[in-house]
Q: What sequence folds into this?
């Protein structure tokens, strides 16, 4: 799973990318290139399981991040942006709400709502541009041939165009599975779920408890495929680079409970509609990533296609039960291990052992 980090120039994208991927080498300010890195989705539950099993290897879930250069008006239409963001599953828009003497906002003043609106518009214009080009072609083709799928695509794109023309992002539209298939080949940007990260001043950490209210973002917060969070990237960068033993004191001084990094990655994970199931053993304790709603047989396929093909049953233990009894033997005795069939919908925190035939 991949998330693209976008936003206006100098909003703190690379700082956040570095925090997420634990890489403090370089910032590439202003450079027109993308950078890719991997973040670990920290999970208390995996830590716990690992402490009990003491496996040779402990594997957390991961999210890939793509750090993009800053955008200005019209950039999002460019093929550099559309092709770099083609494969990302979600967008993270970093918005500047911090002020320093060194860095001036590209629009001359700080205004979070305006920046979010403008960024959303850039995504919308990029999609409109793509749709208009495609519509022209389809209309030409439809004069020559009759094709049901092409007609449906034409209809759908016209609907999208109308929607976008009202300055609404495509992520607000509910699509049928069939329609989703039809447009899979497109790189629409406004259709991707989005996490707006508002990068605030250190001095505002205490003041801004409810960013939606504070920045008047109610319109955006309504959408289930939109999330809003604040962070002070500068402080988080410092925390991340401190030796672990100094971290606690530094955070206490600032009244910060936990680094924002894990919260941010978690939020991203859930925005992507992802959950984790676990496999445990002496060799490895591992978190596996699946989409919410995945059935046991498909989940097995994440581990190996043979396990999916030869699926017999899933032995499922709820993490909370395991946490309580700390022993699979005990869990079995208490009848807390459930045998589930291939249609069982896997839940977040399931510890699973798949039985299968090869
Ligand atoms: N005071 C303050 N400065 C910040 C904060 N976040 C980032 N900066 C500074 O802002 C400058 C730009 O940060 P970057 O992370 O490089 O921003 P960017 O969005 O990647 O910039 P471009 O890629 O050039 O668009 C750097 O000098 C950062 O140290 C913050 O929360 N507070
Ligand atoms: Mg950058």
A:
């Amino acid at each position: 799973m991949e998330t693209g980090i976008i936003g206006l120039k100098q909003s703190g994208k690379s700082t956040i990318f570095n925090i997420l991927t634990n890489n403090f080498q370089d910032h590439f300010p202003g450079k027109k290139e993308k950078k890719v890195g991997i973040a670990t989705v920290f999970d208390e539950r995996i830590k716990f399981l690992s402490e009990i099993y003491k496996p040779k290897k402990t594997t957390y879930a991961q999210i890939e991040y793509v750090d993009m250069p800053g955008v200005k008006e019209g950039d999002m239409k460019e093929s550099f942006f559309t092709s770099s963001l083609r494969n990302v599953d979600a967008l993270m828009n970093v918005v500047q709400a911090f002020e320093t003497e060194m860095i001036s906002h590209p629009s001359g003043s700080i205004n979070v709502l305006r920046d979010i609106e403008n960024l959303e518009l850039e995504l919308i214009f990029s999609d409109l541009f793509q749709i208009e080009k495609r519509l022209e072609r389809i209309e030409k083709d439809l004069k020559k041939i009759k094709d049901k799928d092409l007609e449906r695509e034409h209809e759908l794109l016209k609907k999208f165009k109308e929607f976008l023309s009202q300055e609404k992002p495509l992520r607000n539209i509910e699509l049928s599975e069939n329609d989703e298939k039809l447009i899979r080949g497109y790189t629409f940007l406004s259709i991707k779920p989005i996490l707006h990260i508002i990068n605030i001043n250190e001095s505002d950490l205490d003041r801004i408890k409810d960013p939606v209210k504070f920045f008047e973002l109610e319109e955006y917060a309504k959408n289930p495929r939109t999330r809003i969070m604040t962070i002070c990237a500068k402080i988080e960068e410092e925390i991340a680079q401190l030796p672990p033993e100094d971290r606690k004191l530094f955070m206490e001084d600032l009244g910060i409970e936990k680094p924002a990094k894990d919260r941010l990655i978690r939020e991203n994970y859930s925005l992507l509609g992802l959950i984790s199931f676990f496999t445990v053993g002496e060799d490895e304790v591992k978190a596996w990533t699946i989409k919410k709603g995945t059935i046991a047989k498909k989940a097995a396929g994440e581990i190996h296609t043979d396990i999916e093909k030869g699926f017999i049953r899933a032995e499922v233990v709820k993490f909370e039960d395991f946490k309580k009894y700390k022993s699979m033997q005990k869990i079995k005795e208490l009848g807390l291990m459930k045998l589930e069939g291939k249609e069982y919908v896997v839940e977040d925190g399931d510890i699973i052992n798949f039985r299968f035939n090869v």
Q: What stands out?
A: The first strand starts at residue 2 and ends at 6. The two ends are 29 Å apart (CA to CA). Residues 7, 9-15, 27, 29-30, 69-70, 98, 100, 103, 199, 232-234 surround guanosine-5'-triphosphate (ligand 1) (CB under 6 Å).
